[in-house]
Design a protein that fits this description.
The complex is a heterotetramer of chains A (about 300), B (about 250), C (about 290) and D (about 300). Chain B has one domain (about 20-45, about 60-250). Chain B contains ten helices and no strands. Chain B has helices spanning about 1-15, 20-30, 30-55, 65-95, 95-100, 110-135, 140-170, 175-190, 200-210, 225-250. By secondary structure, chain C is mostly helical. The termini of chain C are far apart. Classes of the chains: A alpha/beta (about 300), B mainly alpha (about 250), C mainly alpha (about 290), D alpha/beta (about 300). Chains A and D meet through helix 5, helix 9 and strand 12 of A and helix 4, helix 5, helix 9, strand 14 and helix 10 of D.
Chain lengths: ~300, ~250, ~290, ~300
């Protein structure tokens, strides 16, 4: 079966600006995070796969077909835009039924499918109120529902948690997780929030300056490092001294956590005994963990292309 | 003398370089808005020149339809409305008003440049159009041309103040402005003659008729005495200017 | 005693195995949704007021005429506006109806971003605009034909010998249907083109009504002021009454309505002028939506 | 920089302020003080954060109560904006300006005498020097936000009120942003940042204000707030060589409410008195000769504090 999403030497130029520079990648099924600084070409990539933009070079393939030349290929794709895209005067159930019809579902199926989808995204009786009265969280759910009502194979989510408060964000991330697992719909999630990616994505694909700079399983980017972090609420200096007595050199600035490099196995016991000896109340003792955002810290100066990353 | 001149010059220089004046000019001179406004201003000139060109003169009953009904009742208010309601209306709708309000600048010094730009962008255009029509129609009679020029100028100054205030009070200012011009001044003033004392159209026409009443004799049926009209227009202009400043001070800015 | 039965059904997410109709289903959906939007159906009360009011404004004259026809009997029927003259008066409410309602179909989709959801569906932007145009055209046909049919039937029933009246005037029916279609074609395309020009419905409506009013004033001012054949040609400036020229030609009668001033202009020119005033806005509309992006 | 109030007397004072629109009460009798340093303003959607900020920056008038900034009223007092910089929550900008022209426009409205120099300084501070001559319309959201920040601080204000400054910025921009704000706060400025992204505020803010449906639910250092939530026991995960024996030892402590061993063999301890637990864990491990590998608090993050308060 052809790859779900495939970019073959794909490039896109807007006059002198190079948004995508002949990139090659394939997106497997499951949930993939699409990361990259502003204006790096993320939105362009999504629009090329949706067939809304014509590639300057190479091909953007969805299950082997090119949506730009074959609009019907879009019937198996879903898109949740970042910007507002909902009518305010009609109810969610009417809007969703209409969107299902426009996606090619016959009237009866459209109605039942819309009702089911609204239930799955967690909209119950509010679905019969007009969308203009919905909260931001409920609107994000309707935006997601219209992307999956026609049972697509792959759904593109552009900043799905933008503007949501912590509660709403948590619920949206669970929903995205369920889409990838229970619903069996693969997703490409474009976002700026590392937390979102670490919690929902299996794979990540990083685009910077029009090129793919990283691709691989999320786990690969967030393993634990060798450095040991110790945080205590009090008597920090006494702890440092106790550690030194036991031949362990701890460094750390001001009142931040203490860092101990390449700790040997019995070093743990030394730390434990130092803690008891110094009487320092232990808040945290844990290895450091690489963070996804380190990708951005490391990868050189920021390059702001002229491209606005919005529509 | 020198001091006053210097103070005058620095005030003028300050005025020209005033940032609010600068952005208002940029905002209101959008291509689409300007083409509509210029087209509207040109219509009476085209009609008059075609009629005079073909017939060699204007029919006896000309001042009332061209100046009374078309110019003063429709074109002048629509042109001023298109810009004046947008003076603050655009800022409100685009949510950029906060950039002005959150600055150590008195509200008066925010409203003054906005008002000046509106008058400067509509006044000359309409006055020139009116003067050309007068000169073409009444074979270059200077007195009629002046009458039309002064009348239009007063109309622009007064309408600008009212519509600028409307633009700040409601986002549907254009709708209310149309309502005011076509219902209050158009329809009602036909029946309730008393309205003439409270309608900008009446002030404009009365000032024209006051200055020259031979060629513009037909304008008398809507006119009141010149001094009353002039004072009325002055009061209305100052009143709505003050209301705009007061509104800007007291409103919740989005 | 058999064991009590219990079963848990999987109401979880089910993949969709049903039929997937292509672009025609989508166009049909857009058409139906367009008509419902125009009439404010499914949108709460306030959205229904304007369309309702304007619809009534068109029906009432026809109903009044019918009542008059039935009361005053045969003699009075001649001074009633016949089918040929009905559109002289009906054009004003129809144009206002279209100017205010038509932009609603295009501006709201753009302003609230729903357009970008359509463009990611398996349809092209031309499917979208054709669907919307057809929606309003069909609605305009209804708005234009129904009062005429009512009037025709009413007058028919009112006349002493219904059969005889029908036999003599059966050819009126295709004529007023054709004239009505010409009017609907005109009043659909112009406002929709205006809606492609600006994002705000109120501005689009003001634009159409503005152009129509000013064209009426300028056209008449010039043709009265100058008169003669030159005046007749200048009357063409009053684009609002162009469909009436077609109406007069279809009923080949000397018109006494607003189209009268342009009577001396040759038929071919008047038809050409009508076609231009439909084709140009249609082309502008089509081009504007061809390259619109999500 | 003018001299600062050394002992951190409150820069901003909000005194029993309420704001309602018809019968919708957006801010309900809130009193608070904000001192120099970075204060994070948090709360779920619709909690009244923006409404409160709009009243503190003078854009809208409270329905009840008073607000003073640097001792002065903020309404009908344009002079205050010489010392106050504001970045509102909407992201509208004048499309016809280039980045630099927009900051210059601000600078001239602030009546600065050395405009070019001050504008350069602000643009460099937000690291937008190379994009400054491009039109704002072409900017990405993150770039626009940074230019808007430059425009709101070009006059070197003592107080800065920033509503969702981080929205639309990517990770790298956010890191630079936080470093910049930390720098600004060092010279005694008072900076209020409202945001939804808790991970960012956690590292950035010295203290937080938490609003829930119009009321002030908590204020101060979030860990101190956590300690006050005594009806919520602390959860600590302990990774060690012999989890069962460690669990047995821990259960013996009176302060321990409950102990479980999870699937990965971690000992999850709940206790209302966390300071006792912090000393007991190493001691018990030492007595029982168990190797202590990992101790992690599971709910002392800002997110948990936020969650507990919102659910309360």
């Amino acid at each position: 079966m052809a790859e779900l999403l495939q970019a073959a030497g794909l490039s896109k130029h807007y006059g002198s600006t190079v948004a995508l520079d002949s990139v090659d990648f394939a997106v497997p099924s499951g949930i993939t995070g699409l990361l990259g600084p502003n204006g790096a070409g993320k939105s362009t990539a999504i629009k090329l796969f949706l067939g809304l933009l014509e590639p300057t070079g190479g091909q953007a393939l969805v299950m082997g077909e090119e949506p730009y030349s074959l609009p019907a290929a879009r019937s198996r794709l879903g898109y949740m835009p970042e910007h507002d895209c909902l009518p305010s005067a009609i109810t969610a159930s009417e809007f969703l039924t209409h969107m299902a019809r426009v996606s090619g579902l016959p009237a009866a199926d459209a109605r039942t499918r819309a009702a089911d989808t609204l239930r799955h995204v967690g909209l119950d009786e509010e679905r019969y109120r007009s969308i203009g009265e919905y909260s931001t969280g409920m609107k994000q759910r309707v935006k997601l529902a219209q992307a999956i009502v026609h049972d697509p194979v792959m759904v593109f989510l552009d900043e799905p948690t933008a503007g949501l408060d912590p509660m709403g964000r948590e619920e949206m991330l669970d929903l995205i997780r369920r889409i990838g697992t229970d619903f069996g719909i693969s997703a490409l999630v474009s976002t700026h929030l590392m937390g979102d990616v670490e919690r929902t994505c299996d794979e990540i694909l990083v685009i910077d300056a029009g090129r793919v700079t990283h691709q691989g399983a999320v786990k690969g980017f967030t393993e634990e490092t060798q450095t040991m972090y110790i945080e205590v609420d009090d008597r920090r200096d006494q702890l440092v001294a106790a550690l030194a007595d036991r031949g362990i050199e701890a460094n750390g600035d001001g009142h931040g956590p203490l860092l101990i490099e390449n700790l040997s196995d019995d070093g743990f016991d030394a730390i434990r005994d130092a803690l008891v000896a110094s009487g320092a109340p232990l808040r945290r003792l844990a290895p450091g963990r690489a963070q996804l955002s380190d990708i951005f810290k490391a990868s050189g100066t920021e390059r702001e292309s002229g491209m606005s990353n919005g529509q | 003398m020198m001091g006053r001149n210097m103070m005058g010059k620095s005030m003028m220089a300050g005025f020209i370089k005033d940032p609010v004046l600068h952005i208002s000019l940029k905002q209101l001179s959008g291509p689409r808005r300007m083409t509509i406004v210029t087209l509207l201003a040109i219509i009476p000139v085209v009609i008059t020149s075609v009629i005079v060109g073909v017939n060699g003169g204007v029919p006896d009953e000309f001042a009332a339809p061209i100046f009374g009904r078309m110019f003063v009742a429709a074109i002048l208010p629509i042109v001023v409305m298109a810009l004046a309601t947008a003076a603050f209306g655009n800022e409100l709708e685009d949510k950029t008003l906060s950039y002005l309000v959150l600055k150590p600048v008195s509200r008066l010094r925010l409203v003054l440049p906005k008002y000046a730009v509106t008058v400067l962008m509509t006044g000359p255009l309409l006055v020139v159009s009116g003067v050309v029509v007068a000169l073409v129609a009444y074979d270059a009679d200077a007195r009629t041309a002046t009458a039309v020029a002064v009348g239009i100028a007063v109309g622009v100054v007064t309408y600008s103040s009212i519509f600028m205030w409307m633009g700040l009070v409601t986002t549907k200012a254009l709708g209310f402005a149309l309502f005011y011009v076509f219902l209050w001044e158009g329809l009602l003033s036909e029946f309730l003659s008393g309205i003439r004392f409270l309608s900008v159209r009446a002030y404009t026409v009365s000032i024209m008729h006051g200055i020259e009443d031979i060629n513009l004799a037909e304008l008398d049926e809507l006119s009141i005495r010149l001094p009353v009209a002039a004072v009325g227009a002055g009061i209305v202009t100052v009143l709505f200017f003050y209301l705009t400043v007061r509104r800007l001070r007291r409103m919740d800015v989005p | 005693m058999n064991k009590p039965q219990g079963e848990v059904f999987d109401i979880g997410y089910q993949p969709y195995e049903g039929a997937r109709e292509g672009r025609n289903a989508a166009r049909k959906a857009l058409l139906i949704d367009g008509m419902r939007t125009a009439l404010g159906m499914g949108r709460g009360l306030t959205a229904k007021i304007l369309p309702g009011l304007l619809f009534l404004a068109l029906l009432i004259p026809a109903l009044v005429f019918i009542i008059i026809a039935s009361v005053v009997g045969q003699t009075g029927i001649d001074d009633l506006p016949g089918v040929a003259d009905y559109y002289q008066g009906a054009i004003y409410p129809v144009l206002i109806f279209s100017a205010i309602i038509a932009p609603e179909l295009l501006t709201t989709d753009r302003r609230n971003g729903v357009l970008s959801l359509y463009l990611v569906r398996p349809i092209t932007s031309s499917d979208y605009i054709i669907g919307r145009w057809l929606a309003f055209f069909l609605l305009s046909l209804i708005v234009v034909w129904v009062p005429q049919l009512l009037l025709y039937i009413g007058v028919n029933l009112g006349s002493t010998d219904a059969w005889e009246y029908l036999r003599d005037n059966w050819d009126d029916i295709p004529r007023f249907l054709l004239a009505g279609a010409a009017l609907a074609l005109f009043t659909t395309t112009l406002p929709l083109a205006a809606a492609a020009f600006t994002d705000r419905r109120a501005i689009a409506a003001a634009l159409v009504i503005g152009i129509w009013v000013i064209a009426l004033a300028v056209g008449n001012a010039l043709s009265d002021g100058i008169g003669g054949t030159a005046g007749a040609w200048l009357a063409l400036i009053d684009i609002g009454s162009t469909p009436l020229h077609i109406n007069d030609m279809i009923f080949n009668q000397a018109s006494d309505g607003p189209g009268r001033a342009a009577e001396e202009v040759p038929k071919a020119v008047r038809i050409g002028w009508y076609l231009i005033l439909v084709a140009v806005p249609a082309a502008f509309l089509y081009m504007k939506y061809r390259k619109v992006s999500a | 920089m003018t001299d600062r109030d050394a002992n951190g007397t409150p820069t901003i004072r909000v005194d029993s302020v309420s704001k309602w629109f018809g019968n919708v009460v957006a801010v309900n009798d809130v009193s608070l003080e904000i001192r120099p340093g970075i204060t994070g303003l948090l709360g779920p959607n619709g909690a009244g954060k923006t409404t409160l900020l709009h009243m503190i920056n003078g854009l809208s008038a409270p329905s009840e109560g008073e607000i003073t900034v640097l001792g002065e009223p903020v309404r009908n007092n344009p002079g205050i904006y010489n010392r106050l910089g504001v970045m509102a929550e909407h992201e509208a900008v004048y499309g016809f300006f280039t980045g630099r022209a927009f900051v210059e426009f601000s600078a001239r409205l602030y009546g600065l005498n050395d405009v070019p120099a001050m504008v350069d300084k602000a643009i460099k501070a937000v690291n937008m020097a190379d994009a400054q001559n491009r039109p704002l319309g072409e900017y990405s959201r993150g770039m626009r936000q940074r230019m808007r920040l430059a425009a709101s601080m070009v006059h070197d204000p003592e107080v800065m009120l920033l509503d969702e400054p981080l929205s639309g910025t990517d990770p790298r921009q956010r890191i630079e942003f936080s470093e910049l704000l930390a720098e600004l706060a060092k010279d005694g400025r008072t900076i209020v940042v409202s945001s939804h992204i808790l991970e960012e505020v956690e590292t950035l803010a010295d203290s937080i204000l938490l609003m829930i449906s119009g009321k002030l639910a908590a204020a101060g250092d979030y860990r101190a707030i956590r300690a006050k939530l005594d009806e919520r026991p602390y959860t600590v995960s302990v990774g060690c060589s012999e989890p069962r024996r460690m669990a047995a030892a821990l259960v013996g402590l009176d302060e321990v409410d409950s102990v479980t061993v999870d699937a990965e063999g971690r000992v999850i301890v709940l206790s209302k008195n966390v300071s006792v637990l912090q000393l007991a864990v190493p001691k018990l491990a030492q007595d029982a000769g168990i190797r202590l590998e990992r101790v992690e608090p599971l709910d002392d993050s800002l997110e948990s504090v936020f969650g507990y308060l919102v659910d309360a």
